[in-house]
Amino acid sequence: MAQYNHLVVNRLYEDDEVSEILSRKRSLTLEMIRKLNQELRIPAEILIQPYELVQTPAQQHSCT
């Protein structure tokens, strides 16, 4: 099942998007949440939970 999920996620998104989301550098969009809910049957209630993003060094410098 995990390999199937990996194949579906790779079909839905670019590799760089998946990497950034999994490393918490990018948030899920509403469209992504809908696709994950429909394709992988992940409850939307789980996907919409708030979480903190990791700031990259470039983002940290732009905030100061």
How far is the first residue's CA from the last residue's CA?
45 Å
Please write the string of helix (H) and strand (E) elements.
HHHHH
By helix and strand content, what is the structural category? mainly alpha
Q: Residue ranges: pLDDT <50 for 5 or more in a row?
A: none
Question: Helical content, roughly?
Answer: 55-70%
- Strand residues, percent: under 5%
Number of E strands = 0
Query: Could you tell me the mean pLDDT?
Result: 80
Tell me the number of helical segments per DSSP (H or I, 4 or more residues long): 5
Radius of gyration, taken over Cα atoms and rounded to an integer in Å = 13 Å
Number of domains: 1
Largest pleated sheet: none
The 3D shape can be described as globular
Protein name: Transcriptional regulator
